[in-house]
Every structure is written in C-alpha cells, then in structure tokens.
Amino acid sequence: MPTARDIMTSNVSCVREQDDLRTAARQMAELGVGSLPICGVDNRLRGMLTDRDIVVKVLAQGRDPGSVTAGELAQGEAVTIGADDDAAEILRTMGQHKVRRLPVIDGRELVGIVAVADVARSLPERPVGDLIEAISERA
C-alpha cells in the first residue's frame, strides 16, 4: 500500500502567519490552489488557510483582508499525516476529520500535501468513494 510520501505533492508553498489575507489570496491565485499551509517564522506548521476561510471568516464579516493575518485564522493544531503513514491511515484521518487535504510531516518538517485527488489516483474506487461520502456528510 502506498505511503503519504509516495502520493503527496511536494514542494509545498506556505503562507506566513504574519502575511495579510490579501497576500495569501494572491499567492493562492498564482499557484492555482484553494488552500495553503500557514507556517510560522520557524517554518513550523501553524494551520491551514482555505479560500473559503477568507470568504466566510473575513469578507462576509465585512473585515478588511489587508488587515487580517493568516495567523489569525490558524485554529488549533492542524490535522496532519506522517510521511511514512500508509494510504489506509490517510483515508482514516481524512474521514475522521472531514478534510480534503492533509499536510504531510516528516519529523517536524512540512514535506508535502496529500489531497483527495492524490488518494483517488493511487487507490481503488471503493475506499475513495467511502472517503468522499465521509467528508461530505454534515455534522
């Protein structure tokens, strides 16, 4: 069974926790992604920022994205997966936490991201279908 390291997207860009959300949104647009890891000055993972976070937690609330930092939206500890964890663990973690992307950690270093699409390309249809169903359910 493939590991996170086998199927992840490496060379991940981070948004810095001190960057404002206008900067983060530009970075997402340039990279063509809908989420970015939030990294501290020590390069440690602080959380994940999604385009939906920017819309719902900032724009819809009438806040100025130029005055809100990515770090302000980092909530608690990010859900991650170890680089050597297998695909079954990836499925379990995504399903349990209802997330579509998992930062991949090797020790304390962010080494990649595993998305549902990465898992879908690597595994048979049934486990992926079960995952999509699990993360799509509303609590």
What order do the helices and strands follow? HEHEEHHEHEEHH
Major sheet description: 3 strands, mixed
E-strand count: 6
The rough form would be described as globular
- The Rg value, from CA coordinates, equals 15 Å
Strand numbers in spatial order across the main sheet:
1-2-3
Number of separate helices: 7
- Helical percentage: 40-55%
Key structural traits:
6 strands; 139 residues; alpha/beta
Textual characterization of the structure:
This protein is an alpha/beta fold and 139 residues long. It is built from 7 helices and 6 strands, in the order αβαββααβαββαα. The strands form 2 sheets. It has a 3-stranded mixed β-sheet. The chain has a 3-stranded mixed β-sheet with strand order 4-5-6. The longest helix has 12 residues, at 125-136.
Provide the fold topology.
Elements: H1 4-7, E1 15-16, H2 21-31, E2 35-39, E3 45-50, H3 51-57, H4 70-73, E4 81-82, H5 87-97, E5 101-106, E6 109-115, H6 116-122, H7 125-136
Parallel strand pairs: 1-2, 4-5
Antiparallel strand pairs: 2-3, 5-6
What's a quick, concise take on this entry?
The chain has 139 residues and is α/β, with parallel strands linked by helices.
